[in-house]
Amino acid sequence: MKKILALTLLLAAMVATAHAQDVDETACFADQNGNIIPNGTEINASTVYEDLMGIQIKSGLFVKNTGDEDVLVRIAVQVTELSSGQVQICFPNMCIPITAPGELATNAANVAAGALTDLETEWNPADFAYGTARATYKIQYCSFNSLTQTYNVVEEGPQVTVCYNYQDPSAIQQAKATEAATVATYNTAGQRTGHGQKGLVIVKKADGTTSKHLAR
Fold first, then answer.
1. Closest of 170, 137, 138, 172 to residue 157, by C-alpha
2. CB 144 within 8 A of CB 113
3. Looking at residues 26-36, what average pLDDT do you find?
4. pTM to 2 decimal places
5. What is the DSSP string of the chain?
6. Pairing of strands 62-65, 199-205
């Protein structure tokens, strides 16, 4: 019985792994330079921008079509944490604010072969309302039904999670004074990079911890 149970669990794990590897990544997430962000990646965003509209912490996410034909996609967004303000996404041509934890999806649109499209995803926290927001973005492949004039999801694509962090500048300085020093940075292929590398990088600290960041 134990052998049968172990075999069943092993087969279930193999099936789950196979499904994870079967995700169609023709349309995928990428940074501003077109570097692909692997499916399932969790990234941190903490750089603060300010303009007349207020505070923005941008994700830096783009959608890239790696194929040789147009793809019809929409972006599903799941916000699981939002301490203040709103998370916003602008795709394909309309900005949608999300003001409370929950789920929604954008309209569907064609992404041209080889195109790199800015999703303009960001968190707009309230002024001085330091805290965090967390959102998962998933690409969904769609088809258009000409009879009902509706778009239908036909396949799930890759996803990434962005952890937005709005910190008190004085607290950041204090944290920097006490945190472990950065000893190395790597690209997603595991190759060591120099200071100033743009795109998705893996930062290794002196205490052995690592984290992923989108360097802009």
1. 138
2. no
3. 96
4. 0.73
5. -HHHHHHHHHHHHHHHHHHHHT---SEEEE-TT-PBPPTT-EEEE--EEEETTEEEEE---EEEE-SSS-EEEEEEEEEEEESSSEEEEE-SS-EEEE-SSEEEE---EEE-TT-EEE---EEEPPTT--EEEEEEEEEEEEEEETTTTEEEEEEEEEEEEEEEEE--HHHHHHHHHHSPPEEEEE-TTS-EE-TT--EEEEEEETTS-EEEEEE-
6. unpaired
pLDDT of residue 52: 81
With bands split at pLDDT 50, 70 and 90, how would you rate the model's confidence at 199?
A: confident
Burial of 3 (0-12, 13-18, 19+ CB in 10 A): exposed
